[in-house]
Amino acid sequence: MSLLTNISNVKLNKLLSKVDSRVVRYIPISQAMEIGFVADISDESLYNQSIKLAQQFISEGKKVAIIYYFAGKDLPIYCTSEEFVIRKADTNFWGIPNNKAVNEFIEKSFDYLIDFSHSDSFVIKYIFSLSKAKLKVSSSDLETSKYSDIKFALNKEAKATEYIEAIYAYLTIKSIQE
User: Fold this and answer.
1) Residue 177 predicted with pLDDT over 60
2) What gap in Å lies between CA 112 and CA 132, rounded to an integer?
3) Which residues, in sequence order, are CB contacts of 92 under 8 Å at separation 6+?
């Protein structure tokens, strides 16, 4: 881990210590009204599958808000302008996003916040950890898992399609059981 990463993590931990504790509340996904997605979108199939799932939730009458992170300079051709994408240029020296839309996203009390990332990203960790979401979901392989209420252990070789389908299937089955 680099010195800059260590300092960024210290800054994040300091912010987390000042944040009011959130109340974790599970509701069945079928009853959820607002869902947030975060993801590092360097993988086109992950991006496409997350959009497909967002459309599924929207067709069920849910509100969906998405923040993506892309570490590159120019957005990939597969990104549309409809989603909010943070780039490295949108962060400060420490890697912390300094954007009004990000702050509003963090303050939103989503019924679910789902991290679709396949790899660790400080920007995603920052947003995910500070979020006021009622229930947070991520892979157990990511740094965001320590801030998750539901963690998924998936094969490291799992494709984006399998990963997102597994999350949706689990949340749907869990809802049926409730």
Assistant:
1) no
2) 10
3) 98
Report, as an integer, the average pLDDT of 110-124: 86
The answer to whether 127 and 97 are in contact (CB under 8 A) is: yes
Q: Which CATH number fits domain 31-177: 1.10.10.10, 3.20.20.140, 3.40.50.2000, 3.30.450.30?
A: 3.40.50.2000
The counts of H helices and E strands in the chain are 5, 6
Per the structure block, which two tokens stand in for 10? 């210290």
- The count of residues in the chain is 178
pLDDT tens per residue, range 8-35: 666 666 665 666 667 788 888 889 999 9
CB 32 within 8 A of CB 136: no
7, 124 contact by CB (below 8 A): no
Residue 118, CB-side half-sphere exposure with 13 Å CA sphere: 19
Interacting residues of 25 by C-beta distance below 8 A, sequence separation 6+: 134, 135
DSSP 119: S
Q: What is the mean pLDDT of residues 127-155?
A: 81
- Site of tokens 């780039």: 87
